[in-house]
Amino acid sequence: MSIAENILRFRENIPSKVTLVAVSKTKPVSDLMEAYETGQRIFGENKIQEMTDKWEEMPKDIQWHMIGHVQTNKVKYMAPYVNLIHAVDRLKLIKEVNKQAAANNRVIDILIQVKIAREDSKFGMDVQETVKLFEENTLKNYPHVNVVGLMGMATFTDNEEQVSAEFELLEGLFLRFRESANLTILSSGMSGDYKLAIDHGSTMIRVGSSIFGAR
C-alpha cells in the first residue's frame, strides 16, 4: 500500500478522538509530502536537526512534534517553531525549554515522559517523580512551559498482558492528574501496540513504519 493509502486506512480505523502523529524520522520530504497531500498535518521526528531542515522546506501549516530523547543543548534550535515536545523526562530539560521558549516569546507545549517499560533503554521519569512534579506544583516556576499531558513507551514484547499493564499504569497517572493539572493528551502507542494503547485511554498515537514502511 502507498503512504497515502496507509494514512487513510489509519484514519478509518482509529477513533476520531485519537490524534495520529506520522513518525517521519529518516524519511525524505517527498514521502512526507505524500502524507501531507492526504491532509496529514502532524509529523513526529526524533532528531532536532533533521526536523529543523524539514520545517524550513515544508509548508508552514504543519505541526512538528519532537518525539525523541532531547539533549538540552539542542533545544534552542527547535524552540522557534516546535509545536509539542513528547519526551520531556527530567527537570533540567523543563528548565531549558522554559528558557528557550522565553527567548522566543513563546509558551511551548510539552508532555512528561513516564518510564512505564521494564527495559533499561527506555527514558522517562519514574512514577514517584511524576507524582511529585504534579503534587508539588513544581511547574508553576516555568511559565513558558505548558504541560498538556503524559507520554509513555511500553516494553517491546509480544506479551500483551505486560504491555496492557504498562499502558494501564500510564492511564492511571493521567486520570489522577487530568483535572488538577489540566491534562488533555495521553501519548502512547506505536505501530505494534497502538490498539492496546487506545484501549487504555491513549488520545495520541505515534505511527511510523505502518505508514512509511520499514526504515
Which topology does CATH recognise? TIM Barrel
Q: Determine the strand fraction and express it as a percent band.
A: 15-25%
The counted number of beta strands is 8
H/E order of the elements?
A: HEHEHEHEHEHEHEHEH
Let me know the largest β-sheet: 8 strands, parallel
Instruction: Specify the structural class.
Output: alpha/beta
Overall tally of structural domains: 1
**Poorly predicted ranges:** none
Radius of gyration, whole Å: 17 Å
Task: Give the distance, in angstroms, between the N- and C-terminal Cα atoms.
Answer: 16 Å
The average pLDDT score comes to 96
What is the name of the CATH superfamily? Answer: Alanine racemase
- Give the helix level as a range of percent: 25-40%
The CATH architecture classification is Alpha-Beta Barrel
Main sheet strand line-up: 7-6-5-4-3-2-1-8
Number of discrete helical segments: 9
Overall shape: globular
CATH class: Alpha Beta
Any key phrases for this structure?
alpha/beta, 215 residues, 39% helix, globular, TIM Barrel, 8 strands
